[in-house]
Amino acid sequence: MQTTYIETQQISFQDFKNQILEDYRLGRISREMSYLGRREVLTGKAKFGIFGDGKELPQLAMAKVFRNGDFRSGYYRDQTFALAADALTVESFFAQLYADTSVEREPASAGRQMNGHFATRSLNEDGSWKNLMAQKNISSDISPTAGQMPRLLGLAQASKVYKSVTFDGSEKFSNEGNEIAFGTIGDASTAEGHFWETLNAACALQVPMIVSIWDDGYGISVPTKNQRAKADIAEMLSGFQRKEGENQGCEIIQVKAWDYPALLDAYARAEQFARMESVPVVVHVIEVTQPQGHSTSGSHERYKNEERLSWESQFDGLVKFREWVLNYSIEIEGKEEIIASVEELDAIDEEAKKIVKAGQKNAWENYQKTITDLIQSVLPLVENLKGQNAEIESYIGQFNKLVSKAKKDVFHLIRKALLATRGTNSAERTQLMQKYNEVFEIEKDNYSSHLYSQSQWKAENVKEIAPVFSENSEEVDGRVVVRNNFDKIFEKYPETLVFGEDAGNIGDVNQGLEGMQEKYGEVRVADTGIREATILGQGIGMAMRGLRPIAEIQYLDYILYCLQGMSDDLATVQYRTKGGQKAPVIIRTRGHRLEGVWHSGSPMAGILNLSKGILVLVPRNLTKAAGFYNTMLQSDDPAVIVECLNGYRLKEKQPDNLGEFTVPVGKIEVTKEGKDVTLVTYGSTWRIVMDAAEELEKLGISAEVIDVQSLIPFDLTNEIAESVKRTNRLVVIDEDVEGGTSAFILQQILEKQKAFRYLDSDPLTIAANDHRPAYASDGDYFSKPSSDDMVERIYAMFNETNPQKYPAIF
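Above: the chain's sequence. Below: its structure in token form.
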């Protein structure tokens, strides 16, 4: 059991003095970073700046109770905390400001995130987990306001899970669940729904979480009174305050941002509640100042009056801290002791300026050297082409006139030179082309790598194991196949857990988890409230801490509630850290071809376009779904698996090797061979397409039917193009709206696989109407593609080419 700050603070006066002065020093360094960072933006050396000035003291206090193994999920003003937690240096702060793409110099995001977005590296270079208990951990920040909150819930819940769950290697992720998850949020962002949903869930689950609210009275220019029902968020939250003897609610602590001793006490108490009692805590830090305003985009003088600006100047945390230090005295053994004199604090102030300036200078020089080295390797090769085209000399002249040069300017020069010398076959041009390919590969890695896993555990590497059937294999409802497969999964992988609405006690609404909670307990098979955004957040946070969560979103339509978190957080985790963090969540949901406006929508196009970075798997039956779960639990990619909602009661043959067989991602399956036309589909629509294909056979049309199975990744071996090469016709059939998933599939086949070369007829898409489907079976028939629709429209393709053989139907 880790001790708390309260329990460890029996120290000598000299140690106390040293701690105070170190806090003062760090606070001054952080402030100078903010000041100099703003100047770097305004002088054009950086693009944008947003800083943590004014929040130094509460962040120093928070850092004192932040221990190895703990996690933070915050937002972009926590630079002082990151410094104090040894997750940031002056140089790495400025490297991020300049967008330096070096992981070594800017380990948080390798230049992919704007400044103020902090992260520690949870993974080794090969994608394997580091020992997270040997470091203080920061989950990678995101900008969307309150978007960090759902993930915070999962980071905190992981500690509760680890109190009863262990597995081989779990000591890397937890010490018997004694870790705290720290969250930070600006006061105005507490108006967002994600804040309330997260706090509500935390209070219900009773997880060790400390949320710090930095309250500076504004949301950019909008005052707090216009943000919420009450100006005081602590007053609004009073109903969340736990009552004695009840295992619900949270503790609420309010403290002033400039009151150093009160801040130490507040965070010491918060740690005690969270670490010792597993109680969520809200620390409402009030009277926060913002000396430089919101960001470099504008000045706060535009919306703050003179009285407010004067107050902020007087109650600046570092000003008040300095006053407190200078006024502090204590008598020890008859001798008056002080912390520091004016001269000593002045010396610290000067030292802080020098440290920050030196760090900034090194960061700038390192960043510039990358560009200078690139120029020196490229420019002579471009100059060698001057004799081959007169325009090249002018391009070089324009380039040399640039006051500040970026990589894009270098690449623009190369590409203009290659364009100007097109058609020329010379050694000089070949040299430049080779150099271009070489440096482009480097920048492709710098800016476009790690959208998906690049480790040995990526989903594409999982070996295919076919389902095994025998004479003893039973014909069962599809739900039984997936249920029995989950039973094998929970037995095989103790780190796996599932949670969602109705997932526990009744075994999900379709009985795919029937009996699992009774067998494996409420921790591993859990019910949740109706709160999709934080169900996803639970999954992200727990996956970041080494667990293998399956986050159940009851219906595909409901995934819209958590699409923001999927798009802004989960899909970008590996990308925005350049492989430094991962969150291999499996999102379990169900949909396709049900009946009614609210349970049969198909937001697949939205998922595909907004969630690149997450695998999208669309099995046609529950055996295929089970195989995808087995695949993804061997992978470190996140995925959404969409089970067929109308397939749970359909009979399937149950494989003998449950829990072992896998379905490969990015691999299509030809479910009916044909020679006249290729029909491409997925999910529940596949059954209707198969019916249509049989009808077409009777009409003299031999249709090949392909089940895509996996939308992301899509047909990695271009097998669909090979089918089109044989049939010379292509039809994409989809239950999504026009221009939705069918457009994506068509683009993949025609453009990427170049199948247009083999077509004898225009490609055809058969999609749903643009409205949601109406209720009942008739609603489905008239809203989404029916077998009749498919037969008639595919038949029309053949009528167009051979009307005598295929006379018109209508």
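The mean pLDDT is 95.
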